[in-house]
Structures are given as C-alpha cells and as structure tokens.
C-alpha cells in the first residue's frame, strides 16, 4: 500500500525536483503534480518530464492531491500556502522540507487553518540550485526529521514517514524547537561561518582574489562549496531561526576568542589539546555513514 | 637530466611518504634515503619499501645526499636540521615542505649556517597522517610555492623547482612574508575556524554529540574533515605564523559580527547581498581546476 497516490510538489528547485525524481523511481504509480512560481522552472520541469502535470497555479496543482509538499524557501512558505488554501482538499496532508521548523509550523498553521500539517526536513542537499540540479538518490541514507505538531494524528505522521522511507531516507521525530537548535549547530552555523570566511578572503587588499583561488586547496576550497549555496534559501533560514543561530554563534565566538588568545600567548599545549579532541567527531561521522570514508572527501588526485 | 640523484627525506608522514612514492614513479633512478625520529615509522617505511635505505640517524641519512627535504612539523624543523648539520655535504641543497615560511627560513638559517637552503611549500594534503596515508599523486596539479631567500643561487632554485615539476606540481615563487599572508587566509584561518566549530559543537549540553554526528550532512561534516588534521602540525603552524593568522582572524571576526548584527536586526537584504557574492569565488576555484566540479565534492549518493 502506497502512503499517498496523488502527490503535489510546490517549488521545483533542487529539493522539489529531487523528490519528483525519487517518487518516479520508488513509487511509479503515484500521480505527480508540480507547480513553481517561476514560469521558466515550470518549463524546465515540463521538458524534463519530472511530473505528470505541471499546473499553472498552485490552486490547480493541489486540487485533488492527498499530499502537498512545500519546497520553497522558508520565508516564502506562508504566502505559498495561502495561495492554495482555498483549493486544498480537506483530507490532504500538507508537509514541507524547510530547514527551520518552529517558524514554518507557525506560518503554515496561520495560512492553512484546520488543515493537516506535518512538517518535515530531509537533511540533504548540494550547493547547486534549480530543477536541473536535482537527482533521485539525494535522500538515500540521509535523515528526514519529522516535527509533528502537538496532537497530530499518528496515522498522518506515519504516512509522511513512510513516504520518506520509500525515498530512501531514515526517519527521526523531534519537537520543532529541538530540531531548530540541532540544525543551528549542524547546518546553519557552518553555513554562516563559510559565507563569512569566503567574504573575508575576497575583501583582502594585499592578497589578491586570484591568489585566494589559486591556493585554495590548503583548506579554503572546502568552505567555498557551502558558501555557494542558494542565497535566498539561506537568508530565510537565518531570519527564521534567529534565536538558535545567534546563541550558537555566541558560543562559537567565545571558543574562537579562546583559541585566538592561545595563539597570541603561544600556548601550544592548549592548541594541541583542542586539535586532538576534534578528531573523534570526524571518526563518529565516518562510522555512522554520514560522510565518505575516503580521505579528502574522496576527491580524485589524478 | 634529473635535478637530483640522491634525495634524503627527513620525516616520513603523509607528505614525506608521498614524496617518496612520487619520486619512485617519476624518477626511478634516484637513490632515496629516509629517516624518521619515530622507530615505528621507520619500520613501516621499510616494510612498504618506500625508500632504498632507511637510516638510523639523520646524520647518516644526509651524508651523501644532493637534496635533503625536511618533512617534519614546522616547530621541529630547527632541531631536526641541527641534528644533521655536521654531516651535511657542502654542496647539498636543503629544502622543506612547511606551511609557514618566514619562521622556517629563520630557524633553518640558524641551524645550518652556510648551507644552501631553498624552502618550499607544496599546497597539498589530506586529513590523514602517517606513512600509510601517503600516495604518489598527492602533488599532481597542485601548487608548490618556493620561497627562495634573498640572493639565493638561481640554479639551486631551479633544481628544486624542477624536482617538484617532476612530481606533478606547478611552481610559483613568492617572498616568505607574502606566502605567510596568503596561506594564513587560504589555509590557516580555515583550519582554525574548522577546529573551533567542531569543538563548539562537541561542547553543547542540550544538543548531544550523537545528534551532532547524526545530522552532520547539513554542512557540519565538511568542517570535521579538516578539523581531523594532524594536531602537532597545526599547533606549530599557528605558533609560527602568529601575526598573519591573528590579523586574518581579526578581519574574520569583524565580518562575522556584521552578519550577526544583520541577523539580529532582520536585515535580509544585507544577508542576501553577502551570500550572493561568495558564489563567484567557488566558480573561480572550479574553473581553475582547484576543486572537483561535481556537486557535493563528488560524494556518491548511492
């Protein structure tokens, strides 16, 4: 038994188009409808035949859906939901893929009063954007965190969970506030730091931008990947998970100041001790299959 | 004509053992001698047959060399050089692979008065350490920066350059002070930031270490790779390139404070503008072949 038979995807960028591709492979009998506010994206999705139907309005897209997944930047969720609210079938489940969950739950609740909303967040992505960038295996062995609102219907939650399992994801349940703190440290702070350091490097006067690029293999290039992520998506993440991000940032700044002081005072033992314990975390990530065990992310050196 | 015929490598970790492997492939007639202060490393190098000879002392290792390359942590360079100073042939060239150059030039000059010292820095590596971690193609299409002292013999510089070209590297010449500022931003600051954030994440109370590992695919895992680098090597880099690192860190902190303020005040346009311009740097790195063009560093998603 498939968890859903008529799935509508609103927003067909990297994540939305990857869901479409994965549904096609894993649940080929599902009727897939897509909508994107950008006519060019709709055209691309049509050309690539990623959906059975590409609708001209989000209202038309949801009208007979049993699952609607919002795959738009988190700052656009409220408006996108309000747009199809009148046309949403009463028994349809609405979900999303947003990277901050408390704020998204609030705006979806406001835009869709009385609707069944089960927010989710597949922890997966690449630095690319748009419907051409998606691929079916994006969610394979990645975590999908579901943040059901209090009092959510367990059967509805289970259907959303089963949908993501079929796309290859592993499921975890979390309160939205806890999700936002966990992701603030595992995703949002790293992106902010990466965006910052790439900006700092490109502003230097006496070291040229071409030198920064040329010698980036010393470590810098790793940061440029996530600093190439979608600017709209990330602006919205920071604005909608402000408190948790600012708190993590404060802790990070304190730790950085401590290392800065150790360097200034020549405290080699403090540096060595700090640099030693961070190795264990990498080991844990490799052991749990959350990254490539090959050195240098498996980059080829030939 | 080979640039050297009897090469001695002092320190047989990731870089030293990679040089040995690469010399074997590119210049098979070169007589390779190795020495490492750690008897276990010497045993491994012997077992893997990475060198023609593994000497029991660095003095014995250099005694008939025409090139001696120091591949030890930068903080150990002075002592390592002093150890073989008495046995170094007068016409031998001494080079190194250290990540900070002004300080290394100073200590090598002190330890080896009158010797021909041509420092170099191959901008290449992985997060692994030790002789088992090396591989012959590590320097392929990577930059090797040579920082000749003032008045260096051009023929000696050219022989070191040719040696690295044969190992697959591209050559650049730089003043040691400029090298140290360029690498402070492209390598040292990124490592410091990565070590910091991984430490911050592992110290959190309400988000557990297992959650940090589990959801690391959201961005955090990228930082754990370079934060798994050799602690001794990196302690020494920060202590020997203190001024440039502290200056870059100051600029980074100012930029981070500006973004923090934009988040706190909800200035979405400022965030968007910043996140947009950092994309260009990534593009430059890909175009110049300094990173894998595939999304997500080419990680497999299957």
Describe the protein's architecture and organization.
- The structure is a homodimer of 302-residue chains.
- In chain A, helix 7 (176-202) packs across helix 9.
- The first copy, chain A, is globular.
- Chain A contains twelve helices and nine strands.
- The first copy, chain A, is an alpha/beta fold and 302 residues long.
- In chain A, the strands form two sheets. Chain A has a six-stranded parallel beta sheet, sandwiched between helices. The first copy, chain A, has a three-stranded mixed beta sheet with strand order 7-8-9, with helices on one face.
- Chain A folds into two domains: 6-174, NAD(P)-binding Rossmann-like Domain (Rossmann fold), CATH 3.40.50; 178-294, 6-phosphogluconate dehydrogenase C-terminal like domain (6-phosphogluconate dehydrogenase C-terminal fold, Orthogonal Bundle).
- The mean pLDDT of chain A is 96.
- Strand numbers in spatial order across the main sheet of chain A: 3-2-1-4-5-6
Helices and strands of chain A: which structural class?
alpha/beta
**Pattern of helices and strands of chain A:** EHEHEHEHEHEEEHEHHHHHH
Mean pLDDT of chain A: 96
Q: What is the terminal-to-terminal distance of chain A?
A: 48 Å
Domains of chain A, number: 2
Number of helices of chain A: 12
Task: Categorize the overall geometry of chain A.
Answer: globular
Say which CATH homologous superfamily of the largest domain in chain A is assigned. NAD(P)-binding Rossmann-like Domain
Quaternary form? homodimer
CATH class of the largest domain in chain A: Alpha Beta
Q: What are the segments of chain A in which pLDDT stays under 50 over at least 5 consecutive residues?
A: none
| Largest sheet features of chain A | 6 strands, parallel
**Relative strand content of chain A:** 5-15%
Major protein interface: A-B, 112 and 112 residues
The radius of gyration over CA of chain A amounts to 21 Å
CATH overall fold name of the largest domain in chain A: Rossmann fold
Provide the helix percentage of chain A.
Answer: 40-55%
Keywords (chains A, B): Amino-acid biosynthesis, Aromatic amino acid biosynthesis, NAD, Oxidoreductase, Tyrosine biosynthesis
Family (chains A, B): Belongs to the prephenate/arogenate dehydrogenase family.
EC number (chains A, B): 1.3.1.12
Region (Disordered) (chains A, B): 283-302
């Amino acid at each position: 038994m498939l968890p859903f038979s008529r799935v509508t995807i609103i927003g067909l960028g990297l994540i939305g188009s990857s869901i479409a591709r994965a549904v096609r492979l894993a649940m080929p009998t599902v009727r897939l409808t897509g909508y994107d506010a950008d006519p060019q994206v709709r055209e691309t999705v049509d050309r690539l035949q990623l959906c059975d139907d590409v609708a001209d309005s989000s209202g038309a897209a949801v009208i007979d859906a049993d699952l609607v997944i919002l795959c738009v930047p988190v700052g656009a969720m409220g408006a996108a939901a309000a747009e199809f609210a009148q046309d949403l079938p009463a028994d349809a489940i609405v979900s999303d893929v947003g990277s901050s969950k408390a704020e998204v739950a609030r705006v979806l609740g406001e835009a869709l009063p009385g609707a069944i909303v089960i927010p989710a967040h597949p922890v997966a992505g690449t630095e690319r954007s748009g419907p051409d960038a998606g691929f079916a295996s994006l969610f394979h062995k990645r975590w999908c965190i579901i943040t059901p609102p209090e009092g959510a219907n367990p059967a509805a939650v289970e259907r959303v969970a089963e949908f993501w399992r079929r796309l290859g994801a592993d499921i975890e349940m979390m309160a939205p506030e806890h999700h936002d703190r966990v992701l603030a440290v595992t995703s949002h702070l790293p992106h902010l730091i990466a965006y910052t350091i790439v900006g700092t490097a490109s502003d230097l006067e006496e070291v040229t931008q071409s030198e920064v690029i040329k010698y980036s293999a010393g470590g810098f290039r790793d940061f440029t990947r996530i600093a190439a992520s979608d600017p709209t998506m990330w602006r919205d993440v920071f604005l909608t998970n402000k408190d948790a991000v600012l708190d993590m940032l404060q802790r990070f700044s304190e730790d950085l100041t401590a290392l800065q002081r150790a360097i200034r005072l020549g405290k080699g033992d403090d540096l060595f001790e700090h640099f030693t314990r961070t190795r264990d975390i990498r080991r844990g990530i490799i052991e749990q299959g959350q990254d490539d065990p090959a050195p240098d992310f498996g980059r080829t050196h030939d």
